[in-house]
Amino acid sequence: MPTQNKQYANLWVFEHPVIQDKLTVIRDKNTKHVQFRRLLNEIAGLMFFQLSRKYETKQVKVCTPVEESTGVQLANPITLVPILRAGIGMTDGILAMIPEARVGHIGLFRNEKTKEPVPYYCKLPKDIASGPVLLIDPMLATGGSASYAATVLAEHGCTDVQMVCLVTAPEGVQKMQKEHPSLSIYTASLDRCLNENGYILPGLGDAGDRIFGTL
Ligand code: PRP
Ligand code: URA
Predict the structure, then answer these.
(1) Which residues pair with 68 in a beta bridge?
(2) Is 206 among the residues known to form the active site?
(3) For 14, which DSSP code?
C-alpha cells in the first residue's frame, strides 16, 4: 500500500521494497535502455495493482460449470493516458494488468529554455469521462506537462483522474496541488529538488531518452 505524504496530501509514495529495489537500478546511469524499460514497466504494473483498489465494481451473474453464482466486475471502462513520449514506457506494464483498458495519448514536450510544455498531439476516447482515467508519466518535474495534461482531461469532462509517476519533485507536486487539487499522484519517490535545467535531483536523467535509447 502506498503511504500518503505528510506534507503533500495529494501524493502517495510506494515504499515497497521490491519497487524501491527496481527504482535503484533504474536510477543507475549504467543501466541500459532494455533493462530500464523492463523495470519501469514492472514498477508501473505493481503500482497500478495497488492504486486501482478503489475502482468501482458491480455484481454480475456468472454460471460456473457447476451452478449459477454471483461475481464482481469493474463497473466502468478504464482509460490510460500516457503523456508522450516517456509515458509510453509505463503503459505496457499497466496493460499487462488490465488489457481491456483503452489508451488515449497526449503529446507534449518541454521547451528546453522556458520549461513550458509544448503540445503536439491529443487523441482520447470520446466517452473518456465515463470511467476512471489514469494519467501516466514517469517524471513530474516542474509539473508543467502534467498540469497541462490534467487540464485537457478536465476539459473533456474527466472528474475521476489519478496520476502515476515514477519520480516526482516537490515543485511539480506543489503545482499539481494548486492547479488540480482533487488529483492524487502515485509515485515511487519524492526526490529532493530540480536543478537549474529543470532536471530532478537525484532523479534518473531524461526518462524518454533512457527508455528509448536516444541518449
Ligand atoms: C519529460 C517527462 C515529462 C516532462 C516532465 O518529457 O517525460 O513529460 O519532461 O517535466 P515537467 O514536469 O517540467 O513538465 P520531455 O519533455 O523530455 O519529452 P519526452 O517524453 O518526449 O522525452
Ligand atoms: N524530464 C525528465 O525526463 N527528467 C527530469 O529529470 C525532468 C524532466
Answers:
(1) 63
(2) yes
(3) -
* Residue 187 CA: distances (Å) to CA of 69, 128, 137, 156: 38, 23, 10, 25
Pocket-testing residue among 145, 176, 178, ligand 1, by greatest number of atoms within 8 A of Cβ: 145
Catalytic residue among 114, 151, 159, 214: 114
Residue 209 annotated as catalytic = yes
Domain 3-55+75-212, CATH: 3.40.50.2020
Summarised one tens digit per residue, pLDDT across range 4-28 is: 999 999 999 999 999 999 999 999 9
Alpha helices in the chain (DSSP H): 17-27, 33-51, 88-95, 144-155, 170-179, 207-212
* Ligand 2 neighbours by CB, cut-off 6 Å: 86, 139, 141, 198-200, 203, 206-208
pTM value > 0.90 = yes
Q: Which residues pair with 147 in a beta bridge?
A: none
Q: Is 151 assigned a catalytic role?
A: no
Residue nearest to atom 7 of ligand 2 (CA): 199
Tens-digit pLDDT profile for residues 24-76: 999 999 999 999 999 999 999 999 999 999 999 999 999 999 999 999 999 99
